[in-house]
Design a protein that fits this description.
By secondary structure, the protein is an alpha+beta fold. It is built from 15 helices and 15 strands.
Length: 442
């Protein structure tokens, strides 16, 4: 388990607060971010586009995440009076490993309890060739067009695959921009109901087994046409891609997932919004400012300069208002809102027991217990119940408590910034590094 997450004693099954500042990932970011920002315009502008302000905001918030010096909650056992300090978290997606792990668990539960119906589903993956990925890197607004087109293709298929007319397909679509080795590889994970819903909410399953091969040509045509309308590619590129035996467009279709397989549905829901990297596969060599990142299988690895590694993961940070998960068709926010209002009107004043569990789905303690199978609110000494008794945010009080506990988080030594030689920006362009993205993720 990475040191960037909480530490769990395997024998005692007790919760210990994480210390992110000692993890290789945190030290890599802290040691090299200033240098990365300083050289960005000369070294990475050509490859990744302009420096987005959301990057610095997310990184600074991550560097404050889990650090007691920035404030904490006091958690105390009222039976034996023992207590521990719980640092505040940043809740940043796709950059903070700990916060994003909790986000994945919360989303998996939310999707299964609030969105997905007890009907058969399939997992789809829509991917595009390297030659056109560069346009999505420099203009992230195109990602929503990618999701829209994939949904149009699936919706068209399912409306024709169901014998009942007027049915509405349903899906959750997640946008991902990364491959196995952190290259920019925009693709879509879609969890789609294997059929359609009628006006009364009755589900009609598709009549035949799905052949993903019939989806790829339509997906390819719509994507290339969209890029042509926007003036990004010409007819020559379309002819070139269409002439290839393997165009690089691909539609993967998983096996049907039946309603009773709740665990598979929840696991896939977590998977489709996973982070772009894993700290367990990262080795940071601080004295050389290098990062070695292993593949998912462990059979391959890639070596980065530390600033190059930071540049790679920063390219996957979404904008603050950017929607990476979309609910479409019968699962759209509009349709779910209408059904929810109708249920309230029809149920009079009856309140179901599960309402409480849904409202608590984002509880910190419950998510920790779900991920690591250890309850952080069970006292490790007497096994009594612990609870939060105070939130400490005043700097003087924080300093006084940490000094009394001999915890020094205000001063941490870090090496001086390393000066990197900046290559001519044309070199990166000539080598086509900007589309060096892997397909290994599939």
């Amino acid at each position: 388990m990475s040191s960037d997450t909480l530490v769990v004693s395997k024998n005692l099954k007790e919760y210990r607060c994480r210390k992110p500042q000692y993890s290789p990932y945190y030290r890599c970011i802290e040691d090299n971010y200033e240098e990365f920002e300083r050289i960005y315009d000369t070294k990475y502008l050509q490859k990744y586009g302009y420096f987005r302000q959301v990057i610095s905001k997310v990184i600074f918030q991550y560097l404050d995440c889990g650090i007691l010096a920035n404030g904490f909650a006091r958690v105390k056992c009222h039976k034996c009076k023992s207590e521990f300090l719980l640092a505040y978290s940043c809740k940043r997606r796709h950059f903070c490993p700990s916060c994003h792990a909790k986000r994945c668990v919360a989303f998996g539960e939310f999707a299964c309890s609030n969105v997905l119906k007890k009907v058969p589903h399939r997992h789809f993956v829509f991917s595009i060739p390297k030659i056109i990925r560069i346009y999505f890197l420099f203009d992230r607004a195109l990602l929503k067009d990618l999701a829209r087109i994939a949904w149009q293709v699936l919706s068209c298929y399912y409306k024709n695959a169901v014998s009942k007319e007027g049915t509405v397909p349903a899906a959750i679509c997640s946008i991902q921009t990364f491959g196995d080795m952190l290259g920019f590889n925009p693709h879509l994970h879609i969890l789609c109901a294997d059929g359609g819903f009628g006006n009364s909410g009755i589900f009609y399953a598709s009549d035949a087994d799905l052949d993903a091969g019939i989806l790829e040509p339509l997906f390819r045509h719509k994507i290339l046409s969209m890029l042509k309308r926007r003036g990004l590619i010409g007819e020559r590129v379309i002819e070139l891609v269409s002439s290839w035996r393997h165009s690089g467009f691909n539609v993967y279709c998983g096996e049907r997932i039946y309603p009773g397989d709740t665990q598979s549905m929840e696991n896939i829901s977590r998977y489709i919004i996973r982070a772009s990297f894993s700290t367990e596969r990262l080795n940071y060599i601080a004295n050389e400012s290098r990062v070695i990142y292993r593949s998912k299988t462990g059979n391959d690895s890639k070596e980065f300069e530390a600033v190059d590694f930071i540049a790679s993961i920063c390219s996957h940070i979404p904008e603050k208002s950017e929607q990476m998960v979309r609910y479409t068709g019968f699962y759209s926010n509009v349709c779910r809102g209408k059904r929810s209002k109708q249920e309230v009107d029809e149920s009079d004043y009856v309140i179901e027991n599960e309402k409480h569990s849904k409202s608590c789905s984002k509880s910190w303690a419950r998510l920790i217990k779900k991920i690591y199978e250890v309850d952080p609110l069970v006292c490790p000494k007497c096994k009594g119940q612990m609870r939060i008794i105070a939130f400490i945010e005043d700097y003087k009080v924080i300093r006084k408590i940490l000094d009394w506990l001999s915890i020094d988080e205000f001063k941490r030594d870090k090496p001086p910034p390393k000066r990197f030689a900046v290559a001519d920006s044309f070199d990166d362009y000539a080598q086509n590094d900007y589309i060096d993205c892997g397909y290994e993720d599939f």
